[in-house]
Amino acid sequence: MFETLFKPQSIAVVGASRNPGKIGYTILMNLKMTGFNGKIFPVNRNESEILGLKCYPSLSDIGEKVDIAVLALPVKYIPELVSECKDIGTGYVIIISGGFSETGGAGKEMEEQLARIIYGSGTRIIGPNTVGVYFPYNRVNTALTPPDRVLFPPEGKIAFISQSGALGLLAMDSISEYGVGISAFINLGNMIDLNDLELLDYFGKDEKTGSVVVYIESVSSGKLFFEKIREINRIKPVVVLKSGRTQSSAMAASLHTGAMATNDAILNGALLQAGATRAYDETELLDYGRVLAYSKPLRGKNIAVVTTAGGIGVITSDYISSKHHGIGLSLARLKESTKDAIKKIIVPFGSAENPIDLTADGSTSDYKKILPILLDDPGVDGIIIYALPQTPKMDVSIVDVIQEYANGIKPLVVGVIGSKMGRDIIIELERRKIPAFPSIQRTVKAVKVLYDYGTYMKRRL
Amino acid sequence: MKINEYLIKAKNGILDESTIKEMLGSFGVKVPKGVLVENYPQKINLKYPLVLKVSDPEVLHKSDVGGVRLGIKNSMELRKEFKAMKNRFPDSKFIIETMEKEGLEIIVGAINDRDFGLAIMLGMGGIYTELYGDVAFRLIPIDGLDAEEMIGSVSINRFVEGFRGIKVNKEKLKNLLLKISEIAYNIGERLNQLDLNPVIATEDDLVVVDAKLSLK
């Protein structure tokens, strides 16, 4: 299923251009820059060569198998092009062009026409009104954002399905700051053919995918969507960001996609019932996708905190325990023997009580001794570790220490604050697929997500 | 009786309260002891205080039009109130039922959402539901865990342990949610809305005091 989409041997760009202001140029550029190593066929009647690639006057003139055809021409040419794609046996047609159902009745009719053209054939449509796909593992990038403006994430474990193109591209750009990777990105646009349910099925089985994050503006069939999420969430955690929660934002969404918003309270109940994680913005969407992809779920609500900065430990404790501005879990009560063992490691004015404060004297080797002691305490279900760059005894080698204990049954979530060595630490942790977050709040919220998913799974399975 | 035999009595898609309660009762949902009458009954085997209500699918919002009398203490009062109500609704039938003791008023409902299909709702009764959005929805059918999680997510949960002398029986509330899910599931796509409002919850039991049902 979807083999030719995710691992294409050849991609045609119809409307390819040598003019850097045109979308047909950017798409070609992105395909080349991302390093797609299959065949690229630019299609443009008036050119013989673009960006060093031989250009064809039409799809039929290529005379070879085309796995994916990207259509970047105005809407009036699209039906004829889709027919041509079908005739030459193209697997997937990505229709970048807008001007379909999002603009009204005539566009809607055009979509129905496209659906009729491919009906019964092996050709599938992605879009229309899409920014395309980005598959880092196979170097496929049909995005229409100029590569000098944004970054594309490296290979990773998060599958990202987005109804909005811009939000998807920008969120990917943002996470690239820390080298957060994805397994695939796909923008479904107006979704006249290939849909989110099929992709959920695919990513549920995809070995490279550890979690699936979905941004949606409308739910076309809530019941089916719910059933699919419930099914897949048990195999791979699913995170959903749904826009249009309120009446006024629902109005904006319906102008945007031509679909009515659904009742948010029912959606919320359905997601809880499915055990899916709900995100409320793009940061949460990717943070939650990341922690769920990298960590085992929490099996209890008792969290230990280790820090070299007292204030950060206390704020974290507040967030853990409080229901308002907090996640309503518990600070683990450590056994006396645990505390005694920790006391022997830390300085006398440090704290062996949870939150454990090593103070400015805390070193990476102290962490190396403390982590196994905490993990052995049956009262600890998970640990928040702060890897903070402000003191001389702490450096990027903390990552090696954390990695040693990161794959056990009790999850470790790392909090890092700072923009220089702090950033380096996060990037290094990310490279090793250990969940790390650049703020107290984001760290604690990630822990809550592991708890909710763990609770759901424990109760249902 | 099968569920269809109740639903067939709907007029313009609305089922009268007495039929709904009979249907609920057949699924084991507790409703007040009562009788449906057209004229003042010769004899009543119900304990006072009583409630007198008009039962007519055409009168949906009974209390707005003087179709409900609560706390009737004796037969003299009942006779007087019945006469007045009969004058107001000469062509209707009437429910006379026992008045439930006080408890926590909650709402249990089912709706047929355009996008999600059948969904069940649990919320605190009265004005607070709307004020605080203190409700939980789940798609139908639900299981026992769904029911427990619904209860856990609304403020009714605070009364499960007891709060200011008011306590709610969690097991029975869970059972009620499962039964309403089952009933709505059986009605299926024809269901438009089912409203049990209020349901009086106490430490011992849950009783559906008023019920409305509309079909598509």
Rg of Cα set of chain B: 17 Å
Overall tally of domains of chain B: 2
- The CATH superfamily of the largest domain in chain B is ATP-grasp fold, B domain
Shape summary of chain A: elongated
CATH architecture of the largest domain in chain B: 2-Layer Sandwich
The number of helices of chain B is: 6
Largest interface: pair, residues per side? A-B, 17 and 18 residues
Order of helices and strands of chain B: HEHEEEHEEEHEHHEEE
Classify the helix fraction of chain A into a percent range.
40-55%
Give the helix level of chain B as a range of percent. Answer: 25-40%
What would you call the quaternary organization? heterodimer
Secondary structure class of chain B reads alpha+beta
- Assigned CATH superfamily of the largest domain in chain A: Succinyl-CoA synthetase domains
CATH class of the largest domain in chain A: Alpha Beta
Question: What is the β-strand count of chain B?
Answer: 11
Task: Let me know the average pLDDT of chain A.
Answer: 93
- In terms of DSSP E residues, the strand content of chain A is 15-25%
Q: Determine and state the CATH class of the largest domain in chain B.
A: Alpha Beta
| Straight-line distance between termini of chain A | 28 Å
- Summed up, the domain count of chain A is 3
Q: Main traits of this protein?
A:
heterodimer; A: 461 residues; alpha/beta; Rossmann fold; 3 domains; 7-stranded mixed sheet; 6-stranded parallel sheet; 17 helices; elongated; B: 216 residues; alpha+beta; Dna Ligase, domain 1; D-amino Acid Aminotransferase, Chain A, domain 1; 2 domains; 7-stranded antiparallel sheet; 4-stranded antiparallel sheet; 6 helices
Please provide a brief summary of the model.
The complex is a heterodimer of chains A (461) and B (216). Helices cover 40% and strands 17% of the residues of chain A.
